[in-house]
Amino acid sequence: FQYRPAGKPDLLVVDPPSLSHGKQSEHAAAHAYRKLHKSLGGYVPRDGLLCSSSCTARLSFSRWKQAIAEGLGDSGEWSWTWQSQAPTDHPTALGH
Questions:
Q1: From the CB of residue 26, how many other CB atoms can be counted at a distance below 10 Å?
Q2: Position 20 pLDDT exceeds 80
Q3: Above 80 in pLDDT, residue 1?
Q4: Please, which contacts does 22-27 make with residues 24 or more away whose CB atoms are closer than 8 Å?
Q5: Which of 14, 29, 47, 94 has the maximum number of C-beta atoms within 10 A of its C-beta?
């Protein structure tokens, strides 16, 4: 998570690799998403867009959104413009 934009981008895409590979790492994954968004949120100008994605299937959609919101909390006013989840035909392991 060392990347820092050179200026204020109109669009910043945050797409880290999977941050949780098991149930025991869910808390660490949420913390990492929070930390990542806290470090990058201030770079996006008021009229800019932050596009964030997740490959962390073990972290629920609501918990992932909560971590992002907590991370962005100190960097201005934010709103969700669009959100989606994996399509219904996306395979999900029975253990999830």
A1: 16
A2: no
A3: no
A4: 22/58, 23/58, 25/58, 26/58, 26/59, 26/63
A5: 29
* Overall pTM surpassing 0.85 (yes/no): no
Return d(Cα 11, Cα 53) in angstroms, integer: 14
**Residue 17 to residues 20, 32, 54: CA-CA distances in angstroms?**
9, 11, 8
Q: Enumerate residues 6+ apart whose C-beta is below 8 A from 15.
A: 51, 52, 53
Average pLDDT, rounded, for the chain: 85
The pLDDT value given to residue 51: 94
**Cα 75 from Cα 68, distance rounded (Å):** 12
Residue 11 phi, psi dihedral angles, 5° rounding? -135, 125
- Would you state the pLDDT for residue 96? 59
At 49 the three-state DSSP class reads strand
Q: Which ranges in 12-60 belong to alpha helices (H)?
A: 26-40
